[in-house]
């Protein structure tokens, strides 16, 4: 009889500890619920762990881009007056225009985006002004219609122009 009472006392103390643990985790023990106390405690522990992991992901900065701790200010693509002048000047160029002039205009058009120094010279040597104008006009059209979000117009320009035929040698 004494042993039975000790077992009941230890069982009641274990249950009260579990109830306290459930409440510490932010849950609420329900005696009318079909699950036993240990299952309710298990569920509360799982929910607390999931909330903690979710909070850690928010503070760790899991983002779409690289999370190496550096911050780079994004440059929004806007059609300024200087860019419109560049576009109009590019429209006057023919296949006889020196590639250096075209590369200078492309550098000024895509100023603010990280590119290699010789990248625009390579583009102007390998693609004629007509192809360059068509790609720039397409980028402007996409920008004005807001059909897609262009995060890096210089990279998008390069991606599009590489699909075109290269310049024929003279």
Instruction: Please report the distance between the alpha carbons of the first and last residues.
Output: 108 Å
Overall residue-averaged pLDDT value: 75
Cα shape: rod-shaped
Low-confidence segments, given as residue ranges, are 59-67, 71-75
SS field, number of helical segments: 7
The largest β sheet comes out as: none
Rounded to an integer, what's the Rg over CA atoms? 33 Å
Order of helices and strands: HHHHHHH
Number of E strands? 0
Query: Which class of secondary structure composition applies to the elements?
Result: mainly alpha
* Approximate helicity band: 55-70%
Estimate the strand proportion.
under 5%
Task: Explain the overall architecture.
- The chain is mostly helical.
- 61% of the residues lie in helices and 0% in strands.
- The chain contains seven helices and no strands.
- It has helices spanning 2-24, 37-60, 81-92, 99-109, 119-126, 129-145, 153-161.
- α1 runs parallel beside α2 (37-60), α4 (99-109) packs across α5 and α6 (129-145) crosses α7 (153-161).
- The longest helix has 24 residues, at 37-60.
Fill in the keyword field for this structure.
mainly alpha; 170 residues
Short description:
With 170 residues, this protein is mainly alpha-helical.
């Amino acid at each position: 009889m004494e042993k039975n009472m000790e077992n009941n006392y230890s069982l009641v103390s274990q249950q009260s500890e579990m109830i306290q643990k459930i409440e510490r985790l932010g849950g609420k023990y329900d005696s009318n619920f079909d699950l036993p106390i240990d299952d309710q405690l298990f569920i509360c522990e799982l929910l607390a762990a999931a909330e903690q992991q979710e909070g850690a992901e928010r503070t760790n900065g899991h983002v779409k881009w690289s999370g190496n701790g550096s911050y780079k200010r994004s440059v929004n693509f806007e059609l300024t007056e200087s860019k419109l002048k560049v576009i109009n000047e590019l429209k006057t160029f023919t296949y006889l225009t020196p590639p250096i002039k075209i590369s200078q205009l492309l550098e000024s058009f895509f100023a603010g985006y990280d590119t290699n120094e010789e990248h625009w010279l390579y583009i102007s040597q390998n693609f004629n002004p007509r192809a360059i104008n068509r790609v720039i006009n397409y980028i402007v059209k996409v920008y004005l219609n807001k059909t897609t979000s262009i995060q890096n117009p210089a990279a998008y320009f390069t991606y599009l122009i590489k699909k075109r035929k290269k310049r024929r040698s003279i």
